[in-house]
């Protein structure tokens, strides 16, 4: 790895003073919102109630830890971000924040979030948060992302831990429910990101990132989208059969999985000519569906938890 392009770009624009918005952008707020939501669901659907203040502190720590991961990722990937259209405007490659600042912010926030979560809740939750940050920075960003086209498959684990952390905050342990929430995000990540890669292919090529579209081509990527979506379906439906599932969740899961699977099938049937003709309209649509997919499943789990408060949730009735 070399930081030449990022540092050179930073030097050119060193006169631009960073604002609070730039430092907030380091934390990848859009990614953080998904982390917070899934962690909150993991906490709320757990069978052990958590005091609202402790729950607030726990979610705050998870959000801060996610933001810290984003800052550390931007520090390490500054050279890649500087040559990709969709990331060149980020705080470091645009010269608004120095790489050292991002590293310092990420390290400080990581320590704060882990220690406070351990003191406020339990050390299993804190340990899972620490491992998540380590996995995202070291295993994914430093190793997998630049080494293998399976970067998204294995690296997806980093984004799958938040509901497990939320569950651990409440219960102090791990269960089949939390493992399946983890598996749902883990299996969802590859088709979600490969659908994105199919219509931002040139960005990854310029950055030298071995995305599957670059190393094996679009046809292979389309097959992978379909295969991983097929593998995702039983995980999503299996979660509905656990203690946190129920008829409402299952109905949502069936609809969303049919919708997502139909989109993956449509992608698989296409070729490059069709993609160019409609400017990747199908791939863009499937990517958007993938966003709805995850929020719908975790939202349905919340509804089931609310119904259980009135004796209506789950399979008991």
TrEMBL record:
Membrane topology listed for this record: Multi-pass membrane protein
Pathway linked to the protein: Porphyrin-containing compound metabolism; heme O biosynthesis; heme O from protoheme: step 1/1
Subcellular location: Cell membrane
Transmembrane segments: 31-48, 54-76, 97-117, 123-140, 152-173, 179-200, 225-242, 248-268, 289-310
Keywords: Cell membrane, Heme biosynthesis, Membrane, Transferase, Transmembrane, Transmembrane helix
Pfam families according to UniProt: UbiA (PF01040)
Any one GO MF annotation of this record: protoheme IX farnesyltransferase activity
One example of a Gene Ontology biological process annotation: heme O biosynthetic process
Principal location listed in the UniProt entry: membrane
Function field: Converts heme B (protoheme IX) to heme O by substitution of the vinyl group on carbon 2 of heme B porphyrin ring with a hydroxyethyl farnesyl side group.
Assembly mode: Interacts with CtaA.
Protein name, entry field: Protoheme IX farnesyltransferase
């Amino acid at each position: 790895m070399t930081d030449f392009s990022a540092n050179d770009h930073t030097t050119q624009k060193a006169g631009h003073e960073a604002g609070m918005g730039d430092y907030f952008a380091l934390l990848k707020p859009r990614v953080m919102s998904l982390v917070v939501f899934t962690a909150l669901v993991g906490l709320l659907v757990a069978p052990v109630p958590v005091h609202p203040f402790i729950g607030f502190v726990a979610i705050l720590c998870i959000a801060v830890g996610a933001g810290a991961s984003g800052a550390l990722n931007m520090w390490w990937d500054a050279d890649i971000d500087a040559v990709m259209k969709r990331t060149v405007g980020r705080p470091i490659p645009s010269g608004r924040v120095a790489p050292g600042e991002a590293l310092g912010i990420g390290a400080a926030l990581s320590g704060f979030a882990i220690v406070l979560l351990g003191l406020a809740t339990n050390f299993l939750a804190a340990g899972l948060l620490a491992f998540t940050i380590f996995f995202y920075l070291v295993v994914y960003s430093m190793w997998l992302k630049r080494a293998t086209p399976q970067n998204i498959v294995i690296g997806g684990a980093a984004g799958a831990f938040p509901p497990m952390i939320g569950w651990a905050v409440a219960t102090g342990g791990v269960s089949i429910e939390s493992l399946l929430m983890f598996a749902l995000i883990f299996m969802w990540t590859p088709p979600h990101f490969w659908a994105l890669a199919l219509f931002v292919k040139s960005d990854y090529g310029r950055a030298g990132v071995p995305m599957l579209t670059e190393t094996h081509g679009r046809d292979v990527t389309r097959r992978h989208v379909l295969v991983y979506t097929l593998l995702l379906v039983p995980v999503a439906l299996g979660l509905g059969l656990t203690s946190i599932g129920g008829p409402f969740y299952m109905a949502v899961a069936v609809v969303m999985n049919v919708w997502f699977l139909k989109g993956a099938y449509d992608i698989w049937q296409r070729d490059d000519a069709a993609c160019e003709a409609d400017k990747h309209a199908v791939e863009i649509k499937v990517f958007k569906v993938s966003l709805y997919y995850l929020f719908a499943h975790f939202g349905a789990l919340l509804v089931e938890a609310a119904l259980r408060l009135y004796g209506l949730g789950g399979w008991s009735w």
